[in-house]
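Why predict the complex rather than its parts? Because the way molecules touch one another can change local conformation, and only a joint prediction can capture that. The input here totals 1141 residues.
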Amino acid sequence: MLWLIPALPFISALMLISGWRVFTRAAVSIIGCGSIGVSALLTIVLGIQFMQSGQTSAVQHLWEWMQAGNFSAGADLRLDALSLCFAFVITFVGFLIHIYSTGYMAEDADYGRFFACMNLFVGAMLVLVLADNLLLLYFGWEGVGLCSYLLIGFWYKDPANGYAARKAFVVTRVGDTAMAIALFMLFQFTGSLQIQSILDKAPGLWAAGNATVVWIAFLLLGGAVGKSAQLPLQTWLPDAMAGPTPVSALIHAATMVTAGVYLIARMHTLFELAPAAQTGVAIVGAVTLLLAGCSALVQRDIKRVLAYSTISQIGYMFLALGVGAWSAAIFHFVTHAFFKALLFMGAGAVIVAMHHEQDMMKMGGLRKQLPAVYWVFLTGAASLAAIPFITSGFYSKDQIVWLAWSSAQGHTLYWVCAVTGAFLTAMYTFRMVFLTFFGAARNHQHPHTPGPSMMIPLYVLAVLSTVAGFIELPHTLGHVTLFSDFLRPMLPAVQLLQESAALEWASQLLAAGLTFLGIYIAWLWVIRQPEGMKRFAQMPFMQWLRVFWMKGWAFDDVYNALFVQPYVQTARMNRRDMIDRIYTALAAITQWFHDILARTQNGILRYYVMGVVIGAVVILSVLIWKVYV
Amino acid sequence: MILLYIILIPVIGALLSWLVSARSVTLCRWIALASLLLDLVIVTGIWLDQGDGGKGWLYNWQAPWIPQFGITLHLAMDGLSLVMLVLTFFLGALSVLVSWNEIRWRAGFFHFNLLFVITGIAGVFLTMDLFLFYFFWEVMLIPMYFLIGIWGHERREYAAYKFFIFTQAGGLLMLLAILGLYFVHAANTGVYTFNYFDLLHTPMARSLSQWLMLGFLIAFVVKLPAVPFHTWLPDAHTEAPTAGSVILAGLLLKTGAYGILRFVLPLFPAAAQDFAPWAMLLGVAGILYGGQLAYAQPDFKRLVAYTSVSHMGFVLLGAFAFNEVAYQGVVMQMITHGISTGALFMLAGVLYERIHTRELSRMGGLWPVLPAMGTVTMIFVMASLGLPGLGNFIAEFLILVGSWQANRPLTVLAAIGLVIATIYSLRIMQKVFFGQTERQFGLPDLNTREWVMLAPLVLVIIWLGVYPKPVLKMLNTARGTLNAARGTLHVAEAPDNTKRMQPSAFSVEPNQ
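Output of the joint prediction:
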């Protein structure tokens, strides 16, 4: 049965690709959403069975994929707590996003192609998380990359979209290549790519801090930062917003970009053996969450705010992974999937309502006009900003903030980054809310009200964004550990260095205080004192900083100068292949000799006589020279 | 005898189709197609017959030709030959289909040449006599020269000359090396023979074996082609008619790879081992250099031609990695590259028939007009960049896994080739199908004939990516025959947990 979960999306994608002429829109919707819905149901049923059975994992062997020499890899699927958790989010949130898409994309000419790509994506993503060996995982990993490429460039008529799509593919491929090298190394040393066997063998093969395992872990991290848009490969994600909004919700917020988190959590034993790499994960996460948070603060495009916010929130997950708080990272992944999908789809509803306007500076006052969208968006924003007690984002983020300091691998600096990030998050989130929904309407067109197919998924996600937090509550507030207990067979518990309820309270209160401070500043900035803010922003340094952050810390410019331009320019210069010049020159020299010699054959007798005489004189002179000297 | 029939069928087909072309061109096309399909059925039948295929040599046939000089008509087939023959007749039949509308001028002579090239290729894959091998090597060359020179595009004569001179120069070096080997063997044993099996394990001085090895190797890397001998390829591929490009990319290049696997490594194991780092370096240079040139090309066919340089670099890298995993990857690469690049050339041809240009800058925005063609192109573009689930990934991954054991820095550089492949491959989609149209084309999408030739390629490339086991298994039989040849070889520093290549227990003599 397990195989059906990824197979259904694949089959439906195949049907949609091959039958694109035949199907009506209704048929496309039924096939597209139906298959994901059935997959989601199957996941839930299998998940319940699995939890009741008390097994820690179940493997289904499908067929032997490849076998060459001593290398082999099977198409095997594995169900355990971690993959179940991801599969649930993928199919369930995926299903909601599909339903939403039937409304969002209703007018699009390429309706069938859209669902074909979306279903292909869900299938590949499910293979990624259900794979029993790293090669099959890599299959899913590249497969989602392909779908991401296809969907970012979905509106292919604009070359800018095509550029964004190719950028996403190429940048993530850089990470994928690092990951591929990690696979070569893992195979070389463990003789297998089967995940469980690697994790079992690793502690026996390598002592902690062994150079090999550190290399492997860093290379895996390279793959993870590419897919999850973390430093230094984060540059593709903001541009990826060129795709349709449901794509941003599904691929670039809820599921694909968290594949890196999945990979690190899945291979956590290797990272435990490689403390340097694990510290690397934490530092990447901490720095990324700050940089992206700052960039989110100054964007004008509502989707770009959410894109930077996604980068920043995944930074939190990386930070959690880096300090060994494995289940906290996964918990944040789950809540983030809910509230970020909600926010993206809410933003999509706003964008549709505003006749495809994405610039927040041209929105405003939508609270009155789109009350339903406003409320669900506010729920998501509250969760993202981590408003205490009533939002899931609070519980998941709070756990990371606390563990960043208190876990065995924690550090005060991580905690400072996390808390600062919380402040930034609240500020940019509510800046977005205020700009979009409050104040005076800056655009006087009458907004469309989204239909039920778009609103129902939003309601469901709004509920989940609120209640999903209650499955895991901190020590200080009830101490529920349902979620981490569920993951315990796969992911070890975090090792705490300090355990102090007082300090935990202090940390929580500080974070909560900073959240409210952030909201207050956003309120001052947008609603209360926009003029004062404008004057502040007019200062030369602030203006420079705004542009700098707007461009995402100018990473694109640096990469462009360092990699893109040199490559493109040398390619352009060498278009005609300099090696060919050697052969052309050879041919030219031959031709030249030919011309010279041909010139001597001119048919004029006296030249020939002259030639004979000169030849005779030379030969005689040489002979005489030889004999007499 | 069946091996002889395999070679004779296209010869007869060639003569017949030339003869009937005066009366009916359509009949001539059908004869050409039928003879190749018949061969395809025969070799596929042999494959299906093998089941598990544990044997080393499947068929062996021998007849004296010029006994005074030790020259025999010696044909033999192992798993490697069989797989390559299936590919040969598969792509051969498709190349007849692809020329159905394109070639109207002197179609009889065209098919005569086409079938003769295929005969030569089949002969190269089957013969176990070095003199006969050289004979077939030349048989491939001359009809190909005509195919490019007569039915090619604008600069066809230049391209045909260039192709001829490059391959011929390489071939002459090989002839010298063959003769050198022949006389060295005779000097040592007193027996004058061109028989492959007798010449294996000819004892000779290290320096001499290095020279002879280079003679063979240069002929093969020119054909492959490896940087810096690749410059004939873009011209030949670009100027050739579609069928010619398909045969060149799909099959002719593979004879170079086949030669390395069949002759260079088994005949001169020690010398090849000495040369391995340099050969691998050439391979990596090809991957990176070819990839960058592909990116820069303004011409669709030229772009695809340079991707061949890049992909064949993987073959050279893997062949000189001296281990089993890489070797299987190399053969997979030969097959999958034949299919994916062949398909891309066909698509370029199909497109050319519609818009009469190969200039990428004059294309764009074709997706809404040609969605089916766009989808098929997307599949092969993805194959070309090594997307898992398509055959090329299996090949390149196995090669890299294998070469990692042999040489890590070079493998890392080769892996960067995956990024470069992404860059040039996506450029194809963008330039041809996405973006805005300059002018509105009212073009027909794929017709039935085009579906008939492209659909099998799509199915095969997916099949090879998802379930490559039958092919890999068939290659295991060839492992016996090639390993036996390399049995005395000591393997490069292999890490602890990898199984070293075992000297095989297979006897070198084929079962008669």
